[in-house]
Design a protein that fits this description.
Elements lengths: L3 E5 L3 H12 L3 E6 L10 E4 L1 H9 L3 H7 L1 E3 L5 E2 L5 E3 L9 E5 H11 L5 E3 L3 E6 L4 E5 L2 E5 L1 E4 L6 H6 L7 E13 L14 E5 L2 E8 L3 E9 L10 H8 L7 H6 L7 E7 L7 E2 L2 E3 L2 H4 L8 H18 L10 H32 L1 H13 L2 H7 L19
Parallel strand pairs: 1-2, 1-12, 2-8, 5-14, 12-19
Antiparallel strand pairs: 3-7, 4-7, 5-6, 9-10, 10-11, 13-16, 13-17, 14-15, 15-16, 18-19
Helix pairs in contact: 1-4, 1-9, 2-3, 2-9, 9-10
Protein name: 2-polyprenyl-6-methoxyphenol hydroxylase
GO molecular function, one term: FAD binding
Organism: Nonomuraea zeae
Length: 396
């Protein structure tokens, strides 16, 4: 089965969906409301499940070249610098760290020329069972399939499901930044191979990324959403002034304009990710907190599974349900349980790692865990999320 699709959203999930469609022989138009296509944000890590999805999309080698191994899961520290668990030099690590823009570029370069249209804000959707029509600022088109990959505040989701509750604030906020660490004292500083420092009420994450840079994030509790500061970098530095190096130095090395302050939200579970010929994908379907590092990874999985379902579905030539709708039902049945379970787990992890009341018990548990057992748990096959294997996509 081949056809034409419209993808809404030019982030990692939308580009992955477009690339999956290209690999199975579909044609597509990708609509992005921003005037220029780019990825907003700082850094992230991708686990083995996401790297397998990238490989199935045909960009695994390019992604690995753009990423840097990170030992954050193996290096757990306290604010005074002591290690709760420590990675051994030379140990394999399951995680690869990226600047979001680098992974975005890898996907964008693989999408066929002419598929992306910027400055296109979707204003209407009409699904008449035989086709779906999308209107946007400056245009209208019909297609066999519409994929809503337009993020946590998805326009496609709102137009399809106006009664779905808005994103839910999780009582936590985060400062993110990119520091240049290619020279000077940072070259030998502890923690730049990747680490997580756990403090009462929050944690500080470090990932090395390409071109001599490091991504950092400080996640902590917040009484309400929307609180901002005149100088976000200074506020992050104030809160972490007493924490071990290189944390204060990383913040100091980050340009003021490169510090991002976000509130952490997720979505209540949706009853379905599909409506007729429309599928929701990525954050539009299952936005989750960053505490398991799976937001983008689950979007990549979504794209591969959706592409495989469309490629495999032979349909009913006798005039029954359309092949697209059958494929989308398969996509929903496979993806909704996994992604919603991952979102629940991320929410629970976030509560544990930022709860002042639970801090001492969590630290004691990690400290008492034998190092071999800890390493087994963070190995590439150490948990069910990371063990996911993608379905096969045919070569274009």
């Amino acid at each position: 089965m081949t056809g034409r699709a419209i993808v809404v959203g030019g982030g990692i999930g939308g580009l992955a969906a477009a690339l999956a469609l290209h690999r199975i022989g579909w044609q597509a138009v990708l609509l992005e409301r921003a005037a220029e296509l780019g990825e907003i944000g700082a850094g992230m890590s991708q686990a083995p499940n996401a790297m397998r999805a990238l490989a199935e999309l045909g960009v695994g080698e390019q992604a690995r070249a753009a990423g840097v191994p990170t030992y954050s899961a193996g290096n757990l520290r306290l604010p005074d610098g002591r290690y709760l668990q420590r990675a051994r030099p030379g140990d394999p690590t399951p995680l690869t760290a990226f600047h979001r823009a680098d992974l975005h570029r890898v996907l964008l370069e693989a999408v066929p020329a002419g598929w992306v249209r910027t400055g296109a804000e979707v204003t209407g959707i009409h699904d008449d069972h035989d086709a779906v029509t999308v209107t946007w600022s400056g245009g209208e088109a019909g297609a066999d399939l519409l994929i809503g990959a337009d993020g946590i505040r998805s326009t496609v989701r709102r137009l399809l499901c106006p009664d779905v509750p808005p994103p839910r604030f999780l009582g936590r906020t985060a400062w993110l930044g990119i520091a240049d660490v290619g020279t000077g004292a940072f070259a030998v500083a502890d923690g730049l191979s990747g680490s997580v420092t756990m403090g009462p009420g929050g944690y500080f994450l470090i990932h090395p990324i390409s071109r001599g840079r490091a991504y950092w994030a400080y996640v902590t509790t917040a009484g309400q959403a929307g609180v901002r500061y005149p100088k976000e970098k200074s506020e992050a530095a104030r809160r972490l002034a007493s924490w071990h190096e290189p944390i204060p130095a990383l913040i100091a090395a980050t340009p003021e304009q490169a510090v991002i302050h976000i509130d952490i939200c997720d979505l209540d579970p949706l009853p379905t990710y599909v409506h007729g010929r429309v599928a929701l994908l990525g954050d539009a379907a299952h936005a989750m907190s960053p505490d398991r590092g799976q937001g983008a990874g689950q979007s990549l999985e979504d794209a591969v599974v959706l592409g495989a379902a469309l490629a495999d579905e032979s349909g009913d030539e006798s005039g029954g349900e359309s092949t697209v709708e059958t494929a989308l039902r398969r996509y929903d049945a496979e993806r909704r349980p996994r992604t919603q379970a991952t979102a629940r787990g991320a929410r629970a992890d976030g509560h544990r790692t930022t709860s002042t009341a639970a801090y001492r018990a969590l630290v004691a548990t990690i400290r008492l865990m034998p190092a071999p057992l800890w390493r087994k748990g963070i190995a590439a096959g150490g948990n069910a999320t990371w063990r996911w294997q993608p379905p096969h996509l045919p070569s274009p």
